[in-house]
Amino acid sequence: MFSFPSSNQPSTEFIHYQGQRPDFHAEFLRDVESGLSATPKNIPSRYFYDHTGSQLFEAICDLKDYYPTRTEFSILKELTPELVTRFHESVPIVELGAGSSTKTQVILSAFAARLGKVDYYPIDISPSILNSSGKRITRDIPEINYHGIAADYLEGLDLVRKLPGPKLYLWLGSSIGNFTPAASIRFLSQLRSALHPQDKLLIGLDMVKEESILLQAYNDSEGTTARFNLNLLDRINRELGGHFDLDRFRHRALYNREATRIEMYLVSTERQTVALEALNRRFTFEDGEPIHTENSQKYTPDLIQELLSQSGFHRESMWTDPRQWFSVVLASRS
After folding, report:
1. Is residue 218 within 8 Å of 262, Cβ to Cβ?
2. Domains defined along the chain, listed by start
């Protein structure tokens, strides 16, 4: 049983929550075997984020071609003064998939300035990212009590739901877009069941826009997104004894207009067979055969409303940028 420290002093605490979670290596191996045995082949995007993958994603967020991070950041700077006034006392702030928490510092700074000490519970599967962001945030904002939770979403939520009183949940970066629409509704419904009646959710969602802008964002001119995608195969090599030759695969990102989403793939450039020592198996790839690695759903205002209503949420406020490229929504249980 885990318990959170109660202290009036700012602190940095990292909780590597295990709960009932299966061994990660076995889980990774099982998902890779299942995905490479399927038709079409796929690997879950959650495995992007080892140490190298997390660093590459942070680099993507700084790219000129990648608009979501800077657009969402501009919205957060505008909405935060209003958001803080919704709370009359300090509340725990919980963030799903926190990453480096760079954008979140705007919110944390405002809450600390107005309400004093703030308990911040970032949930992320990368302990190294939690460690580095924890050091930076507590240095820059001494009023923050930082409690990093190294876990996936549901494991982390199972822990923080035990905290008393109202909470503010953050799910930024349009991370919800990695889910299919049906899976998004299922997950938000699970999240709703973990929330208390007075809890609120601040969620970022990327919007449907001109196709050329989307394609440029996921096929950046510096090739950073390609390296991020290919690192998934390199991780399989490192951790599972894979024999993927990264030069024989290429990154592809395309826009599925009907589904309003970006789809990312790793495409075999020739017919080949790849051994995986941890499974004592070989997997055959045809020339041009893809491995589906990620979806990034794009939304319209109607799709956002449908998503919230079907998962039991009420939209309290919605903010967007002048070009309406990105939206941030404050929601509560309906």
Report:
1. yes
2. 24-47+231-297 (no CATH), 59-210+298-333 (3.40.50.150)
